[in-house]
Design a protein that fits this description.
Layout (H helix, E strand, L loop, with lengths): L8 H12 L5 H7 L6 H15 L15 H12 L5 H7 L5 H14 L1 E3 L7 E3 L7 H13 L4 H7 L4 H14 L20 H37 L2
Antiparallel strand pairs: 1-2
Helix pairs in contact: 1-3, 2-3, 4-6, 7-9, 8-9
Length: 233
């Protein structure tokens, strides 16, 4: 169930229709509705709903409206590409509220995906793609130039949201060296980039020395056992 509006739906319809007949302005409609602060945004939403769905769209909704996954993707992509404000994107794709659109954007920016409205629970997520250090550097610099908009950069460069975020964080911590791909490399085989990596490498080196020492001790023990057996033969 959706939350019940505190404002009478009949009043909403009346105010919207008066606005559309040029009898009152946005601010006056907000005042008559008893709205304050960003009340004009609410009036604009009612107008959009009225224009897309007619007066019935402003009646109390018994259940949430479901949107196709493809529409969600297009709306989020349009917003992240700077094609309009939340309200403009809402109007273009016939979305009932800017909060709904904000929720989709938050999903994408948090998880790199947009949840499906189907019972199967599927989702859309960009696949992790292979990149060179030079490409990662270019993406990071572009991300800085766009106020760290990870979602927009993921769309622009066809990579995952999490990839972009991780590259930015590593660049901030370690500079260009943080964009190197060291997966599969044994610790200590390359110069440390941070105090944490230096400590990790030292620990790894001590562990290797301990293993080698243990192997030598085991070998000496075995040799001595053989020598003792030879003495009693």
């Amino acid at each position: 169930m959706s939350r019940k509006s505190k404002i009478d739906p009949v009043l909403k319809v009346e105010l919207v229709e008066r606005y559309l007949r040029n009898e009152i302005g946005i601010r006056e409609a907000g005042r008559l509705a008893g709205l304050s602060g960003n009340g004009t945004d609410s009036i604009r939403k009612w107008i959009t709903i009225y224009q897309n769905e007619g007066p019935i769209g402003l009646l109390e909704q018994k259940r949430y409206k479901h949107y196709p996954l493809d529409l969600k993707r297009k709306a989020v992509h349009a917003y992240l590409h700077g094609e309009g404000s939340l309200l403009k994107i809402m109007e273009r794709y016939n979305i009932r509220s800017t909060k709904t659109l904000q929720d989709w954007i938050k999903q994408y920016n948090t998880h790199g995906e947009i949840k499906s409205c189907t019972s199967g629970g599927g989702s859309y997520m960009r696949k992790v793609r292979q990149t060179t250090p030079e490409e990662r550097y270019e993406i990071v610099q572009d991300c800085f130039a766009n106020d760290k908009n990870y979602g927009a950069m993921a769309l622009k460069y066809n990579c995952s949201y999490q990839q972009v975020r991780n590259w930015v964080l590593r660049y901030e911590q370690m500079g260009a060296a943080g964009l190197e791909d060291r997966r599969g490399r044994r610790a200590g085989t390359q110069p440390a980039r941070t105090p944490e990596e230096e400590l990790r490498d030292k620990i790894a080196e001590l562990e290797r020395k301990n293993r080698n020492l243990q192997m030598e001790n085991d070998l000496l023990k075995k040799v001595r056992e053989l020598e003792m057996k030879d003495r009693y033969l």
